[in-house]
Hints:
homodimer; 200 residues; mainly alpha; Arc Repressor Mutant, subunit A
Amino acid sequence: MARTGRRPGGADTREAILTAARQAFAERGYDGASIRHIATSAGVDPALVHHYFGAKDQLFLAAMEAPVDPATLIPQVVAGGVDGMGERLVRMFLSVWDSPAGRTAAALLRSAVSHDWSARMLREFLTTQVLRRAMKDLQLDPAEAPLRASLIASQMMGLAMARYIVRFEPLASAAPETVVAAIAPTIQRYLTGPLSSSGP
Amino acid sequence: MARTGRRPGGADTREAILTAARQAFAERGYDGASIRHIATSAGVDPALVHHYFGAKDQLFLAAMEAPVDPATLIPQVVAGGVDGMGERLVRMFLSVWDSPAGRTAAALLRSAVSHDWSARMLREFLTTQVLRRAMKDLQLDPAEAPLRASLIASQMMGLAMARYIVRFEPLASAAPETVVAAIAPTIQRYLTGPLSSSGP
């Protein structure tokens, strides 16, 4: 049955909003999608979207079933500045992936590998929710920051793949401290070190 | 229709052998699987398996649809020893992924993320076909080599994810030389550098 007009409240409405939101974020990106447009697609009033989900970033996290809220975690990683941030980032990453939220994170990564729209959502998540927030508090050269961020993303996605998805030993079973000691210097170099042999 | 007994030659026989091989390698691992057992499962003579596919490593590459033969590529990477090997490895990796073989490699990685048996095949491939061959020619401490190998695998899988699958910019569009300059030092450290702040 086709549905038309404004919907009543309830689980059905929530799901309709989330479906419309997934489509909008995947097609238009985070910045291009609007609550107004999502509400229209779902056949509800924009106020109802705000009522259920709050601001756009919260709707985005709900739509992509994000395992954690970067707005909560990132301040803990960037606090203290870039010194030691590689270590804090790897430690935070492991604490999320080793917790029950790790199953949600693995599902997200699996989906991004299999579906283009899901890969787009993951890119948007990393760019707008993680990188943009972290950049606000760090003093990185804006010309280099995007490459640094994508290098960090490459090592962190690879750590997730090797440790939790493909389960390549001994990394899959290594103690968190072993992983932090081995990988934190990589993240620190991607963050603040030279990106080529010739220069900073 | 159930098939029994010895099969005649032809494409049908090749496919039956490959199906039996995939199951055997996924269940028993590379070392545990035998040509004899695979031949029995496929209902053919072991000599026919050798005739079609050669030795076990060649059958394994065919069964997992490997994009390249490590026996050909690894000597080029390890030639010259560990000095500069990080750079040679990243350069070789990019040349494969940027070539038509990259599509096959991406399919392999996607499959490993979605299916446990495929993840097992990828682990076996990295361990027995890549690492074991490379180790023969390098003088790494055997106690550390497996962790070093899995750290290298984490960064290389992450590079494939970020550049070719999730397509995280600017890494996805960066010139190969930019990628080599940024990532080769990581591989070199995982290969020969200290793995913890306190140790060798």
